[in-house]
Structure formats: C-alpha cells, structure tokens
Amino acid sequence: MPDNKVTILIVDDEPAIRRFLRNTLAVQDYRVIEAENAEAAAWSVRHEKPDLIVLDLGLPDRDGLELIRDWRAALAVPIIVLSSRVDEKTKVAVLDAGADDYMSKPFGVDELMARIRTALRHRFTSQGTQPAFSTGQLEMDLVKRLVRVRGEDVKLSPKEYDILKELVIHAGKVLIHSHLLREVWGGETAVDVQYLRVYIRQIRQKIERDPERPEYIVTESGVGYRLQMHE
Amino acid sequence: MSETPPDAKTTPHSMTAPISLALGAAMAKPPKKFNQLAVAYSVSTLVVIASLIAGMAIKQWLAASNIMLVFLPSVLISAALYGFRPGLWASLLSAVAGTYFLSSPGDPFAVSDPANFWAIMIFTLVAAFASAMAEQSRHQAATAEANARITDQMYAFSQKLAGIANADELILAALTQVHSMLQVDALILIPGQNNELDIRVALPPVDRLTFADRNAANWCVEHAKPSGGDLRVWPDATHLFVPLRTGQGVVGVLGVNRGNQGTYLTPEEYKLLDALANHAAVTVERAAFGAHVEEARLIRETEDFRNAMLSSLTHDFKTPLASILGTISSLRHYGSRYDAQTQDEMLGTAQEESERLNRYLGNLLDITRLDTGTLKPKSEIIDISDIVGAVLKRFQGWPEGVRIVTAITPDLPMVPLDFMLTEQALFNILDNALKYASYGNVVIRATSTASTCTIAIEDTGPGIPPEYLVRIFDRFYRVKSVDRQRAGTGLGLAVSKGFTEAMGGKLVASNRPKGGAVFSMTFPIARTAVQPMLSMVVNNPLEPLPTREPKAAASG
Fold it and tell me: Shortest CA distance to B220 belongs to which of B247, B242, B248?
C-alpha cells in the first residue's frame, strides 16, 4: 500500500486503548496498524515498515523492554513507550535501551500527539544535524556557536554550551542523566548527577524567563532532561 | 532470684553422660522379694541333689578324685539363673555332697585321703569363681537388653519428633517421653516475656509452681545446672529441675516430680533424665526455630501481598483510566473530526472502561469487607435458577463471540444462601471464564446430591496449569506476571471464594478432561431446605421465572 501517509504501529494488549489511539491517529491522517502482542508486533515491524512505534511495556507474551533492544539493534524507528509502571528505574531502563520517549498511563492524547510529532520530526532530521535550530524564542547556531534568547545573545560557558547543544540535537526527547554525563563529560568517572544539576541550573538562569517554571529545559523527575519544543 | 541457696557447691552427678550409659530404670535393682529368693535357693538345692543322684549312678566309671566334676554343672546353672549367691550356695552344697563320695566307708563325712580333701577345696574355689563369672555375664546380658530397649525407645522417640511440625505438639511429645520413660510427673518451663519462666506444658497439667520450685527453676536456668529434688540446691522444691541446654545456651528447664514419694532418682535414672533433657532441649530449640520461620514466612507473605496489591492497584486502576482519559481527551481535541459512528464507539469505550473500573472497585471493597469481618451473610431459601438469571442479566449484550449456556437440573432443591453474595461470586467466576474463553460455550451447570448443591462454570479457555489450581484464588494473583494480563482479573476469584466460604460453601477450580477450566461452587443443603413445589426447568433464565410460593411452604 504505497501511499504517502506516515505509518504508526500501536502495540498494546488492551483493545480499548488501541481503539482510541487508532481513532485519534486516523483523524490526523496517519496510517495505523495494530498489534496485540509481541509476536504480531515483530511481524508488523518486519513487513509493514512503520515510521513510528507506540509500545505498551506489559505484553502477554514478552516484555516490551526486550522488543526495544531487538529493534534498536536493527532499525532507527522512533519508539514511544506507554506503561502503567511508574518507577524511575523502568523509565531509565526503557530510555537507555533506546526508546525515544516514555509516557505513563494514564495520559492525555494531546500530549501523546505532541510527542509523536516530535519523534517523527526528529527522525526525519536526524540524518544530518541542522546547523541552525530554533524553538519558541530560543535560537541556536551550532556552527557559529551562538545562543540567542528573546533576540538577545547569551554567553554560555563551554560546558553549559555542550549540555544545551546535546539537548538541542535531541530536541523534544528525554535525555537520561547518564546519557548527558557520558556525552558532555566523556570518560571522566568522578562526575555525578549533582554536577549536571548545577550546570542545568546555570543554563536555566541564562535562558529561561522564570527558572522555576522552565519553558525550554524541563526536568523528567528522576530520569533526565528534555528540551521542550514549542510549536 | 539471684540469691545462692545454702549449698550449691556440687551436684551429685555429672549430667553429661552419653546415652549408651543411660541405663535408667531398667537397671535400678529393686530389693528382691522373699518369694524370688526362696525359688532361687530351692532350685539351686534341687539341681545339686540331681547332680548327686547322677553322680551315684555313674560313680563306678569315674575316678574318685574326678567325682567332683559332676557337681560343676549344677553350680554354673544356679549362678547363671539366679546370680552369685545362689551359685555360691550350690558350690557349698556340692562340696558337702562330695564328701559323701570321697569319705571313708565307715564314716560318711570324714575325708581321710588328703588328695580328696584338696579336690573338694579346689572344687569349691573354682565353683565360687565360676559363679562370679556367670553372675557377671548375666548382668551384662541384662544391661545389654536394657540398653537396647532404651535405645529403641529413644530412636522411636526421635523418629516421632522428626514427624511433628507443630511447635506445641513437638514439646508435648518430648514431655510425654520423659513422663513415660521415667514414670514421673514432668513439666517444661520456657523463658517468656521479661525472661520470666512460663509453664509451657505439664503432664499432668499444672497451673503454677510453688515458691521453692520457681526459685529452683530460676536457679537452674541461671547456672545451667540441676536443682531441687534430692539435690542440695533448693532441697525444698518438689521437682527436680534440669536445664535444657543447646548450643545457644539454656533454652528452658525440664522439671520432674515423683509426687508424694519425693523425687529420688537412681544414678541410672539421672543419666536417662539427662539424655531425655538433651532431646527435649533440641526439641524446644526446634520449636522456637519453627516459630521464627513461621513468623518470617508471615512477614514475607504480607510483603508479597502488599507488593502484589500495589502492582494490581497500579495496573488495574491505570489501565481503564488510561482508556477513559485517552478517549475523552481525544474526543475533546479531535471530536469535530470524528463521524457519528466513531464518536459513539469512543463514548462506548469510555463507558465500558468506567464500568470495568467500577467492578474492580467493587471487588476491592468486597475484599475489604471480607478482611475486616464486616460481612454478615444472610441465610434465605434461594432458588439457584433465580441467581443464575440475575447474573445473566448483568452480562446481557456484553460478551462477544462466546455463548453462555445453562444446564440446571429440573428438580434442584432450594438452598439457604445470601442472594447478593452468591450472585456476585457467580458473576466474578463467569467474568473470569469469559475473559479466558475466546470461543465456544461457557456452561453454567447446577446439580445436587442428597446433601449438597453444586453450581459449576465450565469454559473452553486454555484451562489452568495444575500448579496454579489453588493459587488462582489468591488475592491479586494472576497466572502470569501482573501487567502482562488483562486488567481486573486479580481480585474477582478471591472475592468469589471468600463469599462462597462465608456462606459455608466451597469453591474449587479444576480442568476438564476435554480442555478448559471448571469452577465448582458447592453448598450444603440444610436438612430443613424446602424442596421446590414446582419443577423448575429453566431453559432461558432471562425469561421471568414462574411465580411460586416457597415462602409459604418454608414457614409451614
């Protein structure tokens, strides 16, 4: 069925959840395919080549986490995980395994749709990082190493710049603490999450209008940070 | 109780004798009765006389100096049968009788030949020595026999202990052994709260100890040495106390009492008591250990239960909520883009999921009622088909693809039940069956025997793995891990079982030979149960049932 619609695979064993996701996505012109277990999901991924996967962690035949690892090794499809498990450990494990995003059940569809759009956009741009980035009133030029907020230049220290750059490259996506530490500090082992918190605080003071209510760098409790996209 | 009694320097017996030395009551030598002595000496005398007669008969073939050998068997027989003294008596009698053969013809008791004189003297010595030896071997045989008997008893005792799991029974068994082997009243004291000694068990039952006994027992625990009884430590105590010692120290006290006669034990009995005390100590320790294990198991189970409950609450509340919230937010944001049919489908989803959430909440409340004991089942005379009809009404239009078929015996008796509870129990089982049976029929079968009535729900699902047939009724239990199963299945069966049992019935799960599971609720039929006045063939329970007047019959 070669049409130009973006294909989204929904993997969930709950018919009620599949039903509202299917309807919601369909009216936004996505092509929707469904799988009620891991086996069907694996088949669909192989034969239908979805552009994005919405995956429930608790499947009757296999743990969703194993599926993420399998798929990550082979393909670059964005994966958004849905789960009623709320512990940070699971979230970190899921993101670490390569999922692009994580949503706790229950959730509002508008939030999910925004995450889907972000993940899809990221997918289409990730082949080569855009030299210039902007969302809301935040602009960043990765070539000239310039950061501009509400029309004014912001002076960032090299570490602050590196952190913001990493968030911008993965804009809209949750970056877990260990990912940021690894990318920004490299092999330095003595660095811990506390450092990261201090730097994030400093960046927020420079770019956020109200650092207590950040618009750009939002905290995912116990998991990491995300650069919020503004549409 | 730290004061030291008048003389606590020594205890008369080492209490560390190994069991092989514990000869006990069997070896205590009671003074021999006169009758027994008379028999012993008479028999010995008769044996010597028999030897004398035999000697006269064979005299001509024997040399004079060898004639004494005739008497040797009689001496050995007496010694072997009755011990040293009757043996010695037989030797002396034989010596006297021997002089009859060896004396000069004219004077029967004058031994003229010195060789004959020496023969008699040596014979007497040898006979006396042989008597002593016979006595000793007799003693050894008796010892070995007593030993064997005690070993047998102790072995049987250990075997018995090994088979007991209950702490109270264990300790009682140990005490019973002491009671029967030593023929004493016995009790075991164990330190309770504040380290006060409590009577754990007593044979015969005892409520409290005398002051002296309590002091003696406390002293025994503190010093890990025996006290009371005939010892010099707390001699006023009526009981003799020995400590129950294990590797972890003194775990309690064993007290024994011979009642009015005073508690005087022979050394052998002391040794036996010590061996029994060792056994009792291990038993008490084992019982305490068992209690700890039980406690730990309870804690673990409570924890498991709490974890299972948390996962279940998370999953079973969030899953329907996710559907409701997702559906409603989708309708709110994109509602104008949906056609009427899709809108209706989505509203239907929200409604179904809300109902599911409500059922789950209902189950949670029911479980709480069961746990808090606020559930008071009524006992009304109920028509089973009536209940089945009510349950089917709740399922009307709900199950897709699976048919519910009823098979109710026409002359089913009425059963004393609580209508609401039975209906809910049945509903949950049916709900479960419909969740797992994706095709075919679910059959509700009601049958009865003279004393019971059974409602069985048979499905065509995958059945239940045998190892889960019992656990399936555990709260929050699912055959697979929590959030891999359909939501809301963790409590229904537990509620069904709880309700069924609250009404005096039984609910069991099994597998049908042809595949699929069957849940059977069995209720006793009270003797006064009113038999239906009309035959009740209910082919379609959704139809109104024919009106009947069971109440009038019940009151008559």
Answer: B242
Domains of chain B (ranges; CATH) run 31-160 (no CATH), 177-283 (3.30.450.40), 377-555 (3.30.565.10)
C-beta atoms surrounding A228 within 10 Å: 18
How many other C-beta atoms can be found within 10 angstroms of the C-beta atom of residue B49? Answer: 13
Instruction: Give all strands of the β-sheet with A101-104 in edge-to-edge order.
Output: A31-35, A7-11, A52-56, A79-83, A101-104
Q: B337 and chain A: CB distance < 8 Å anywhere?
A: yes
Q: Which two tokens stand for residue A227?
A: 């650069």
Strands (E), B463-554: 506-511, 517-524
Who contacts B518 (Cβ-Cβ below 8 Å, separation ≥6)?
B456, B457, B458, B459, B509, B510, B511, B512
Among residues 87-116 of chain A, which lie with CB inside 8 Å of chain B?
105-110, 112-113
In chain B, the N- to C-terminal Cα span, in Å, equals: 71
The phi and psi torsions of B534 (rounded to 5 degrees) equal -115, 150
- Which residue ranges in chain B fall short of pLDDT 50? 1-30, 480-484, 528-556
d(CA B240, CA B234): 9
User: Going from the N-terminus, what domains does chain A have, and what CATH number goes with each?
Assistant: 7-125 (3.40.50.2300), 132-227 (1.10.10.10)
- The partner residue sitting opposite A27, judged by closest CB among B319, B337, B484, is B337
B257 phi/psi in degrees, rounded to 5: -150, 130
Q: Which residues pair with B202 in a beta bridge?
A: B187
Residue B525: closest CA among B373, B409, B394: B409
In the numeric block, which tokens belong to residue B321? 């909520």
pLDDT, tens only, B540-551:
444 444 444 333
Among chain A residues, the shortest Cα distance to B333 is held by A110
**Alpha-carbon span A106 to B324, nearest angstrom:** 8
Q: What is this model's ipTM?
A: 0.77
Q: In what side-by-side order are the strands of the sheet with B185-191?
A: B197-203, B185-191, B249-257, B240-246, B227-228
Distance from CA of B488 to the nearest CA of A (A): 12
Instruction: Report pLDDT digits (tens) over B260-272.
Output: 656 677 777 788 8
**SS3 sequence, B135-177?**
HHHHHHHHHHHHHHHHHHHHHHHHHHHHCCCCHHHHHHHHHHH
